């Protein structure tokens, strides 16, 4: 299903891949992330589902916007390489720069910057790969 140059099946799959990647990322790095946040196992009990819903919606929005950007490269340019490169550039220019700024002023530990920014790099690159592979 394609509309306005965006493959919505690719967006849907990229959103799911991004969400699962995030779940795996924080499953693997949960303890250091909690430590860097100042959380304890006790403080995270009875977690509301709202952040998980927000995370999924954010992945859908991110995948849709990334598909739009990649699509603007032109006809025949929606490729695996261009998807990954575009995602990495957008991460560096927008995600890393905003996380570094916000966490710097918030005096957050560098470990937290690395964990959170690394998560979004993995998500964007995987989403770019899915969108690039599926094409328009």
| Overall mean pLDDT | 94
SS field, number of helical segments: 5
Helix content: over 70%
Number of domains: 1
* Radius of gyration based on Cα positions: 16 Å
Biggest sheet, in brief?
2 strands, antiparallel
Number of strands: 2
Could you say which overall geometry the principal axes of the C-alpha atoms support?
globular
Order of helices and strands: EEHHHHH
What class, by secondary structure content? Answer: mainly alpha
Low-confidence stretches: none
The fraction of residues in strands falls at under 5%
Major beta sheet, strand line-up: 1-2
> What is the rounded distance between the termini?
9 Å
Describe the structure concisely for a colleague.
By secondary structure, this protein is an all-alpha fold.
Model description:
Strand 1 and strand 2 form a beta hairpin. Helix 1 packs antiparallel against helix 5 and helix 3 (50-71) packs across helix 5 (110-134). A two-stranded antiparallel ribbon has the order 1-2. Helices cover 75% and strands 3% of the residues. It has 5 helices and 2 strands. It has helices at residues 8-28, 30-37, 50-71, 80-105, 110-134; strands at residues 2-3, 6-7. The model has no long low-confidence stretch (mean pLDDT 94). It has 136 residues and is an all-alpha fold. The protein has one domain.
């Amino acid at each position: 299903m394609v509309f306005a140059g965006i493959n919505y099946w690719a967006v849907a799959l990229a959103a799911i891949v991004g969400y699962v990647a995030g779940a795996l990322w924080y499953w693997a790095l949960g303890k250091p992330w909690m430590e860097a946040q100042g959380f304890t196992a006790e403080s995270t009990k009875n977690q509301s589902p709202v952040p998980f819903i927000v995370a999924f919606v954010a992945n859908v929005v991110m995948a849709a916007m990334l598909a739009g950007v990649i699509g603007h490269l032109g006809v025949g340019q929606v490729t695996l390489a261009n998807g990954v490169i575009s995602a990495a550039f957008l991460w560096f220019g927008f995600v890393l720069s905003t996380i570094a700024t916000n966490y710097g002023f918030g005096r957050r530990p560098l470990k937290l910057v690395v964990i959170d920014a690394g998560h979004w790099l993995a998500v964007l690159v995987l989403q770019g790969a899915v969108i690039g592979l599926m094409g328009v």
